[in-house]
Amino acid sequence: MRAPIGCSEQGGAVLLTALLLMLAILLSAIASARSALHGALAASNERDRLLALHSAMAALADAEHDIEGGAEPSSARAAALAGASPDAFADGCRGGTPYDGLCAHRAGGDGVIQAALADDDGPGVVFGAFTGALIPSGQGALAAQAPRYLIERMPSAPTALLYRITALGFGSAATTQVALQAYYRKPLALEVPGAGVAAPGPGMPGGAGVRVGWREIANWHDAVAMTTEEQ
Question: Is 213 helix (H, G, I), strand (E, B) or coil?
Fold first, then answer.
């Protein structure tokens, strides 16, 4: 016995409605899964960028320690940094041992500094090279490699030295990079009437310096790529 035509049509409509509902639920689940994956990826990228940022900050601090004499306060490098000896600061930062990573300032030469720091085989000073400090890297969620820096001798007042430090930090992926720049002001020893030269503090000859500002270099990869093309 055949079912009435009306019942068959109602059954077909119910089945079609159920299929449409199932399809809507499936599409909603896929959208939610994609959103969760994108969120996880964004969180992972941000975590990696923060790792690179902290790595670069550590390099800034290590460079400041280097300026203050590092692990060998009596070395030729420490003396050159304490007095900003012109011969120690080479164009392109390639003065060689013991003046690795010490750069002469050149107007409009930011691209040269950035390209030199970005080069894995360039003159950038690896974290701890002159201070003996250690930083874990290269495994798991740690930075892919140790950060590095360059120290640039800037024009300054007669009573103080001014250095610009450019530091590069890495995330757990070597392609995740953050570059920072900071200025470091170091006083020179001054003669006090009747007392000779004022007693120096850490790092000689005018006492310990101080960081006077820092910034992140925006669009680091683009800036380096542009400099490379120009060269």
Answer: strand
